UniProtKB/TrEMBL annotation:
Subunit and interaction comment: Binds calmodulin. Interacts with NDUFAF3.
Disordered: annotated segments: 18-44
Name of this chain's protein: NADH dehydrogenase [ubiquinone] 1 alpha subcomplex assembly factor 4
Family according to the record: Belongs to the NDUFAF4 family.
Pfam family, one: UPF0240
GO biological process: mitochondrial respiratory chain complex I assembly
Gene Ontology terms: cellular component: mitochondrion
Transmembrane domains' residue ranges: none
InterPro entries in the record: NDUFAF4
């Protein structure tokens, strides 16, 4: 309902107001800066003559300038150009066990998937004598230096359950009674 009322006032006498605005005199433009008048001065014969006149001193200096340019030697790239398809990386099947549906099926050699990383970290944590860095590197096609860094800096989460409070502990606390 409010939209109808405002529309009536907004559209009231629109044509007369528009005609009044159109019939007003146009405002006079602001005066131009004096540098804008250089175009008119460029047409004068004195300036044209000065521009076209050759200066002997500048010509001799220009003749002394000698520019020599050489292209750098072209290098032939071995193994094809940038735009040609490159050799595909070797891939290996992942070792996921029962978590196979959660992760990718093939991984490049020298890399591991997230599920594999969590699995190997957990295996090393539970059985460090069996899952040594050398065995992990051989099993997952990784470099020994990277496996050592992985085992040193990444630790899987551990879940710890704390004993719940017994009912005796809760009942021993007596609330204050209001008098």
């Amino acid at each position: 309902m409010g939209g109808r009322v405002t529309r009536v006032f907004r559209n009231f006498n629109v044509e007369n107001r528009a005609r009044r605005e159109i019939s007003k005199e146009k405002p006079t433009p602001a005066p131009r800066h004096p540098t804008a008048r250089l175009d008119a001065m460029a047409d004068s014969p004195d300036i044209k003559e000065e521009v076209l006149r050759k200066d002997d001193r500048f010509l001799t200096l220009l003749k002394d300038v000698y520019v020599e340019s050489r292209d750098p030697p072209v290098r032939v790239k071995d193994g094809g150009g940038e735009h040609l398809p490159c050799k595909q990386e070797e891939k290996r099947l992942t070792k996921l066990g029962h978590l196979e549906a959660l992760d990718v099926k093939k991984v490049s050699k020298g890399k591991i998937s997230i599920v594999e990383a969590l699995t190997l970290l957990n295996n090393h944590k539970l059985q460090p004598q069996i899952w040594t860095a050398e065995k992990i590197a051989a099993e997952y096609s990784l470099e020994l230096k990277e496996v050592n860094s992985l085992l040193e800096f990444f630790i899987p989460f551990t879940v710890q359950e704390f004993p719940k409070e017994t009912k005796k502990a809760i009942k021993s606390h007596k609330p204050k009674q209001l008098t």
